[in-house]
Design goal:
Blueprint lengths: L3 H17 L7 H5 L2 H20 L6 H21 L5 H15 L1 H4 L8 H16 L15 H14 L7 H19 L4 H21 L4 H24 L10 H16 L1
Helix pairs in contact: 1-4, 3-4, 8-10, 9-10, 11-12
EC number: 3.6.1.9
Protein name: Nucleoside triphosphate pyrophosphohydrolase
GO molecular function: nucleoside triphosphate diphosphatase activity
């Protein structure tokens, strides 16, 4: 049950959002927005939450979670203005869903089962909710980042036995897909080249799954590392009154290696 201060702050946020959208006294920018224009911000805020968690930036996390909550409130306010639904409907729907999908907590099912079994039971409940003949890959959202969606599709298929035995077989497949990409490289068919590149990335995501690695997190880490080391190149050149455009690949590669060694020291 929500504490009084939580209820009051949520009510305050809902009132602020309503004021921002007021057609006569609200903010012109907020009034002009719709679901489609706000959706990209919703995705961006979710990534910023993930980024704060990845960096263990606990002092930043309340603000980032607040920004994400604002997105939910924003969508609910726009929906309420046209009578589609309101914030209470959003909260009620997810509460009902959580209760229905956790009979081992809110019902009379036993909690004496593994986390893996609970995941399988969750999927069975979702299939019943969807009704009709449920396909294994149903419900994996198209709007997910491609690497995350690949992982979810592969996990779903693996639950019914469609999976390689282990990383060794996936590595063999990576070698095969790499050869096919190399063969397609000299082709004039760019669509085919793109397809082969996608196949290789899909299998790389599968390798991450077999190694218990989150590919999105791994790539975010690689992006952060690249940023650090490139900025180290810029800083080294700046100390000489120069910029990267004043350098060449050989020098920048040497500075990159120096930054790499400094990180490991």
């Amino acid at each position: 049950m929500a504490r009084p201060d939580e209820t009051a702050e949520l009510e305050r946020l809902l009132n602020i959002m309503a004021a921002l959208r007021d057609p006569e006294t609200g903010c012109p920018w907020d009034i002009e927005q719709d679901f489609a224009t706000i959706a990209p911000y919703t995705i961006e805020e979710a990534y910023e939450v993930a980024d704060a968690i990845e960096r263990a930036a606990w002092d930043e996390l309340p603000g980032e979670l607040g920004d994400l909550l604002l997105q939910v409130v924003y969508h609910a306010q726009m929906a309420s203005e046209t009578g589609k639904f309101g914030f209470a409907d959003v909260a009620r729907t997810v509460s009902d869903k959580m209760i229905a999908r956790h009979p081992h907590v809110f019902g009379d099912e036993s909690r004496e089962k593994s986390a893996d079994q609970q995941v399988l039971d969750w999927e069975k409940i979702k299939a019943v909710e969807r009704g009709g003949r449920a396909r294994v890959l149903d419900g994996v959202a198209l709007g997910l980042p491609a690497l995350t969606r690949a992982l979810k599709l592969q996990n779903r298929a693996a639950r019914v036995g469609f999976d390689w035995p282990g990383p060794a077989e996936v590595l063999d497949k990576i070698a095969e897909e790499t050869r096919e990409l190399v063969e397609a490289k000299d082709s004039a068919d760019h669509a085919h080249l793109t397809e082969e590149f996608g196949d290789l990335m899909f299998v790389m995501a599968n390798l991450a799954r077999h190694l218990n690695i989150d590919p999105e997190a791994a790539l975010r880490g690689a992006n952060a590392k690249f940023t650090r080391r490139f900025e180290a190149i810029e800083d080294a050149l700046a100390r000489q009154g120069r910029e990267p455009r004043d350098s060449d690949l050989a020098e920048m590669d040497r500075l990159w290696n120096e930054a790499k060694l400094a990180e490991r020291a």
